Amino acid sequence: MKAKQWMGALSLTLVAGMAHAQSMEITHSEDRETIMGSSEVFTGEPIVNMLFRATDSTRATAAEVTFAPGERSNWHTHPAGQTLVVTDGVGWVQEEGGEKREIKPGDVIWTPPGVKHWHGATATNSMSHIAVQEEVDGNNVEWMEPVTDEQYNAD
Fold this sequence. Notes:
Elements: H1 3-18, E1 34-36, E2 42-43, E3 47-52, E4 60-67, E5 72-73, E6 76-77, E7 82-89, E8 91-95, E9 101-103, E10 108-111, E11 117-121, E12 127-134, E13 142-143, H2 149-153
Antiparallel strand pairs: 1-3, 2-5, 3-4, 4-12, 6-13, 7-10, 7-12, 8-9, 8-11
């Protein structure tokens, strides 16, 4: 194929590809919902700011969660794992059978798929993190029993 023909074919391919391309989308913070965490899955009522939900193009979901001192999630797992990015305060994270670990701003925590864990603020500090996880068959989390005060306060 001659260079001129090749360039013409490339141009047609690019134009055809653009017909199916999506446009950039911006959601402004004031247009996203803020909810109080449910007592069915949290101790306390952390503030949950939804950042984005899964779409036809991506399975990822994310939320910014702010825990007051003493607030924490129930035990839970994620079918495709979860990444936490701590943005403010001091918190704790623990996987079942492991030790409770302190987390601070800038820390990134990866929890593999199916690993039972919890996370939240320390007893004396608030903590905020961004939680990112992917959906599998329309589900991004399996909630379990509450973290007991004995588990939460253990060293």
